[in-house]
Amino acid sequence: MSIIAFIGSIAAIASTSSFAPQAWKVIRSRKTDAISTGMYLLTVAAFLLWTIYGFLLHQWPLIVTNSICLVMSGFILMMKMLPPRQKNEVADTLDPTVRLN
């Protein structure tokens, strides 16, 4: 593997996994007050556009990495925008070990 491919692979792994800690924190805590809706709207839009761009260029690395980021950031945005009862239902489904009062 060339150094360029290696750096690209590490960057792709870092980018796609960067949303996992935030998503997990939202699932565990059910708290989204400190998350910026505007920032996540822009982030989701950007990943959607990057994914479309990748499809238009037939570039699978762009498609795969940006699709994963789109799903993760879209999940966080969805949890931010859901009413508390529905947020709890989603979180309970994904992690039934956490029960909040």
Describe the overall structure.
The structure is a single chain. The chain contains five helices and no strands. The chain is mostly helical and 101 residues long. The longest helix has 22 residues.
How do the strands and helices of this protein lay out in sequence?
Layout: H1 3-17, H2 20-29, H3 37-57, H4 60-81, H5 84-94
Main structural class: mainly alpha
| Range of helix content | over 70%
Number of strands: 0
* Assembly level: single chain
Q: Which residue ranges are poorly predicted, with pLDDT under 50 across at least 5 consecutive positions? A: none
Number of continuous helical runs:
5
- Proportion in β-strands: under 5%
C-alpha geometry: elongated
Largest sheet composition: none
Q: Give the termini separation.
A: 51 Å
Radius of gyration: 16 Å
Mean pLDDT over the residues = 92
Order of helices and strands: HHHHH
Keyphrases for this structure?
single chain, 101 residues, mainly alpha
Give a quick rundown of the structure.
The protein has 101 residues and is an all-alpha fold. The protein has helices at residues 3-17, 20-29, 37-57, 60-81, 84-94. Helix 1 (3-17) runs parallel beside helix 4, helix 2 (20-29) packs parallel to helix 4 (60-81) and helix 3 (37-57) packs antiparallel against helix 4.
